[in-house]
Every structure is written in C-alpha cells, then in structure tokens.
Amino acid sequence: MEPTTGRDVAGYIDHTLLRPDASRDEILKLCGEAIDHGFKAVCVNPIWVATAKRALAGSGVLTCSVAGFPLGASTTAAKAFEAAEAVANGADEVDMVIDIAAARRGDRAALERDIAGVVSPVHAGGAILKVIIETSLLNEHAKVLACEAAAAAGADFVKTSTGFAGGGATVTDVALMRLTVGPKMGVKASGGVRTLADALALIKAGATRLGASSGVAIVGGEQGAPGY
C-alpha cells in the first residue's frame, strides 16, 4: 500500500545534515528528531558517524554516511577507505558518489570497477551501499548506464543526487531508475525533497528511500527550507 500521510512517509526518510559547518549540537538535534519522528536513518558526514551512532543507540534508526562526497572524483581506493572507516565507526549504510566523468563518457567498465571497489568493504562490514549517480549532470543514456553498472557491481541502492550539484530528484528520473534496476533494488530520491507532496510523488514513481534535510517539515505537511 502506498503511503498517504506524513506518518506513512517517515519510515522512508534519511534525515540528512551534510553541511560542512554542521556542529555537534546540530548533529545531536538531527538524531533526536529522527528518533522522535521514526525516520529510517540519519545521514551525516564521516566525522560525525560515531557521534550519531551513540546518539541513536537502541532507537532502531540507522546511521548513514558518505564516501567520495560530493564530487565522486576521488580514486576508488580513497572511496573504499573512507567507506570502510565509516562502517568501522558505526555506519549501517554508506552513500557513495560515482565517477561522474566515466558515466558521461559511457565507460561502464570503469563505473563497475569503481562501485565494486566500494561494495566490497561495505558489505564485508555488514553495511549496505547506495550509489549516487548525480542525475542533474547526466543525460538519459548515462543515467541508465550508471544504474546498470551499480546493479552489476552488487550495490544495494541507486540514488539520484548529492544536493550539491544543482538540480535534484525528479519523478521522471526516479521512474527511469526504477525501470532500469527492476523491482528489487532500492532507489533513493534525494535533492530538493521539501514537501509531503514531493515525497509522495517520488514514492509513487518508485523511490523506496528519500534523502531530505526537511524531514520534520515533510512529515508535518509543511514546506521545508533548502539545505543538505
């Protein structure tokens, strides 16, 4: 059954704070809000993983972090190290950014190698990997290619956007991603999700997770402010 209310949507939301200037107090507030509203996860930069994990202990809310974020232009080894360290510090999930240049030039083999190199340490640590393809920078062919590469490499989710590159999640892109990866793989819509109407439309299009800094506003039926 598709969700219809803010309460229904709460379990889809990765409550996100990825600003580089975020403070410890803001991270703790984020975690408290996630617990209070029953969000699926909090998503924070790697330096805050251990703090978030402690704050969320016993709540059932997952801890998510990022690798190669927000540009995706790090080497695979650097992304893999960053992801492995996040998992060692308590991350249940890692959202990595692909080699966007490889996607734009149509190099599926390079994409698969990059993603598989991060899948390995993340899965070895018992966590799941979401792959950010940065839809606003890709044409339709490259979006499909990136999703196919993520699936072939063994990733658990594909994700639309970092929120840092302009643009964000659209119903059209989510539907395309769902069509490409099939019914079993996760699809995360992120970037510009600020209202309950946004959330419901993206879920209807095929999203199984939503990345948003406006989670509290979304579940309350209000308009969220721009943010990461």
UniProtKB/TrEMBL annotation:
One Gene Ontology biological process: carbohydrate catabolic process
SUPFAM superfamilies, A to Z: Aldolase
GO cellular component, one term: cytoplasm
Matching Pfam families: DeoC
Biological or metabolic pathway of the protein: Carbohydrate degradation; 2-deoxy-D-ribose 1-phosphate degradation; D-glyceraldehyde 3-phosphate and acetaldehyde from 2-deoxy-alpha-D-ribose 1-phosphate: step 2/2
Enzymatic class: lyase
Keywords: Cytoplasm, Lyase, Schiff base
Chief location: cytoplasm
InterPro entries referenced in this protein's UniProt entry, alphabetically: Aldolase_TIM (IPR013785), DeoC (IPR011343), DeoC/FbaB/LacD_aldolase (IPR002915), DeoC_typeI (IPR028581)
EC number of the protein: 4.1.2.4
Catalytic residues as annotated in Swiss-Prot or TrEMBL: 95 (proton donor/acceptor), 159 (schiff-base intermediate with acetaldehyde), 188 (proton donor/acceptor)
Subcellular localization: Cytoplasm
MF (Gene Ontology): deoxyribose-phosphate aldolase activity
SMART domains cross-referenced by the UniProt entry: DeoC
Catalyses which reaction(s): 2-deoxy-D-ribose 5-phosphate = D-glyceraldehyde 3-phosphate + acetaldehyde
Described function: Catalyzes a reversible aldol reaction between acetaldehyde and D-glyceraldehyde 3-phosphate to generate 2-deoxy-D-ribose 5-phosphate.
Family to which the UniProt record says this protein belongs: Belongs to the DeoC/FbaB aldolase family. DeoC type 1 subfamily.
NCBIfam families documented for this protein: deoC
HAMAP family in alphabetical order: DeoC_type1 (MF_00114)
Name by which UniProt lists this protein: Deoxyribose-phosphate aldolase
Record lineage: Bacteria, Bacillati, Actinomycetota, Actinomycetes, Micrococcales
